[in-house]
């Protein structure tokens, strides 16, 4: 009897503890319980949020609702969201310092009814000067051809040519090639943007004559003519050259110091069956470019500064082989089995337009193949998916040169650097680069002038790269 009384005495307060409506560690919260809604344009959805105090009780109250970006639609004080434009965004509910957010997707189509349509971007591939800006815009086109305003997510890939705002405004602050991409759910559209510096090419504007050549040596159509600063888009090519249609070449100002004639053709190792080009099983696309200077073949032909190239590939072929587009690389082919990446810069795969583009130092034979299986006979090259393994200053090209030459260098980590050109007796001529730089592959052009802009005479010069404790020099030959 006494034992039972003790048990009751010990446990009489337990039910009271269990009935207490709070935890000593509880905190007040705001939670949106309508999770990640998807609706169509001009539709609405009622969002609901709850406030839980630190006693664990849900309290009826009103919240401050907001949507970002506000172009998506409107939301009232009750949480009723009415959509206006397509896109992805965030909806937030706040109460004082407490807040919660959820994503929202506004679609033109019913997500259960298959293909949603197409995302369009303007401008399409474009060329701009360093220091300028480009305002990109995107819209949605449904399967009936109707076009609607939309809100997209913007991103910039490839070279670090500038900064891209959430509204699609690209501010150009460095030369190079960048891929501006607009995303809406699973839809994407892209524009290749080539940024060029505004330095004057004192050699004048040179002309590029373009011939398209069939495997039997016959020329296709009349000779084309463009100039430095122009872009050439391959089109209207008959079989088997049709595999090159939509490929592009861009010749920036200053890339030449003389007129040239180029012959566009298929690589020598491509097999022709009927009117179809058949590549080796490890090669998915290719292009051979012969360059004539005053009717003399120059092979390989080096540019004064790199040019930009975009080569198309067949997405269906990759899918059949189980290869993702992001695995591709661009290479110089010495033959069907030996490849080189020296002189290929900033490779970027455009998965929306099925093309791969980069900047190249010279013309010979270029092929598209899987990067991880390619055999490189020269480790001096660069690929956009790889960070350098160590500091390096590569030999300039062309060398000898007149009037300009390109210097490339690699930084495996952030460093304070200087890149200086000296004359033969060690006097400083010009500082090409100075200051902190992040890890990556870099290149710069020396136009044969000193720091005051005066032309330097023919002779031997030295370029020296210093980065922390690292230093390396190379010999430059200016030959006029």
The radius of gyration over CA amounts to 30 Å
Helix content: under 10%
CATH class of the largest domain: Mainly Beta
Number of domains: 4
Structural class: mainly beta
Overall geometry comes to globular
What is the CATH topology descriptor of the largest domain?
A: Chondroitinase Ac, Chain A, domain 3
Q: Characterize the main sheet.
A: 8 strands, mixed
What order do the helices and strands come in, and which of them pair?
Layout (H helix, E strand, L loop, with lengths): L1 H10 L2 H6 L9 E4 L5 E3 L3 E3 L2 E4 L5 E2 L4 E5 L4 E3 L4 E4 L3 E9 L2 E10 L10 E5 L3 E4 L3 E3 L1 E5 L5 E3 L3 E6 L3 E3 L4 E4 L3 E9 L2 E10 L10 E6 L11 E4 L3 E3 L14 E3 L9 E6 L5 E3 L2 E3 L4 E11 L2 E3 L2 E12 L2 H7 L6 E6 L5 E2 L3 E7 L4 E9 L1 E6 L21 E2 L11 E7 L3 E8 L5 E10 L2 E7 L12 E9 L2 E9 L2
Parallel strand pairs: 2-10, 12-20, 21-25
Antiparallel strand pairs: 1-4, 3-8, 4-5, 6-9, 7-8, 9-10, 11-14, 13-18, 14-15, 16-19, 17-18, 19-20, 21-22, 23-24, 24-30, 25-28, 26-27, 28-29, 28-35, 30-34, 31-32, 31-35, 33-34, 36-37, 37-40, 38-39, 38-41, 41-42
């Amino acid at each position: 009897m006494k034992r039972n009384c003790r048990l009751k005495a010990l446990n009489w307060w337990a039910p009271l503890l269990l009935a207490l409506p709070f935890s000593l560690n509880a905190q007040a919260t705001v939670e949106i319980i309508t999770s990640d809604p998807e609706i169509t344009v001009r539709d609405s959805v009622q969002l609901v949020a709850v406030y839980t105090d630190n006693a664990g009780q849900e309290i009826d109250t009103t919240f401050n609702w907001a949507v970002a970006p506000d172009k998506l639609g409107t939301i009232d004080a009750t949480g009723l969201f009415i959509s206006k434009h397509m896109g992805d965004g965030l909806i937030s509910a706040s109460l004082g310092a407490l807040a919660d957010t959820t994503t929202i997707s506004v679609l033109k189509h019913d997500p259960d009814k298959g293909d949603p349509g197409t995302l369009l971007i303007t401008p399409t591939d474009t060329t701009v000067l360093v220091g300028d800006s480009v305002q990109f815009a995107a819209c949605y086109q449904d399967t009936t051809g109707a076009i609607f305003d939309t809100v997209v997510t913007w991103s910039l890939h490839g070279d670090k040519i500038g900064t891209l705002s959430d509204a699609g405004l690209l501010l150009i602050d460095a030369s190079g090639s960048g891929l501006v991409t607009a995303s809406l759910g699973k839809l994407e559209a892209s524009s290749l943007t080539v940024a060029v510096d505004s330095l004057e090419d004192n050699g004048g504007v040179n002309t590029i004559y373009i011939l398209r050549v069939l495997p039997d040596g016959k020329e296709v159509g009349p000779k084309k003519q463009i100039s430095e600063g122009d872009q050439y888009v391959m089109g209207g090519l008959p079989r088997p050259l049709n595999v090159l249609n939509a490929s592009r070449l861009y010749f920036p100002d200053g890339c030449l110091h003389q007129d040239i004639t180029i012959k566009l053709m298929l690589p020598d190792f491509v097999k022709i069956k009927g009117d179809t080009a058949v590549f080796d099983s490890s090669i998915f696309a290719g292009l051979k470019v012969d360059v004539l200077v005053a009717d003399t073949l120059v092979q390989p032909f080096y540019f004064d500064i790199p040019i930009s190239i975009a080569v198309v590939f067949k997405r269906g072929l990759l899918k059949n082989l189980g290869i993702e587009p992001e695995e591709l690389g661009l290479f110089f082919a010495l033959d069907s089995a030996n490849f080189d990446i020296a002189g290929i810069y900033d490779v970027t795969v455009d998965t929306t337009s099925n093309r791969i583009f980069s900047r190249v130092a010279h013309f010979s034979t270029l092929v598209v193949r899987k990067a991880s299986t390619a055999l490189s006979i020269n480790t001096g090259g660069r690929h956009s998916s790889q960070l350098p393994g160590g500091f390096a200053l590569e030999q300039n090209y062309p060398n000898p040169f007149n009037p300009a030459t390109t210097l490339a260098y690699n930084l495996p980590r952030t460093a304070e650097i200087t890149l200086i050109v000296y004359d033969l007796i060690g006097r400083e001529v010009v500082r090409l680069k100075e200051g902190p730089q992040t890890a990556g592959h870099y290149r710069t052009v020396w136009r044969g002038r000193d720091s005051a802009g005066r032309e330097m005479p023919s002779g031997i010069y030295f370029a020296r790269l210093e980065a922390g404790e690292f230093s390396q020099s190379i010999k430059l030959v200016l030959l006029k």
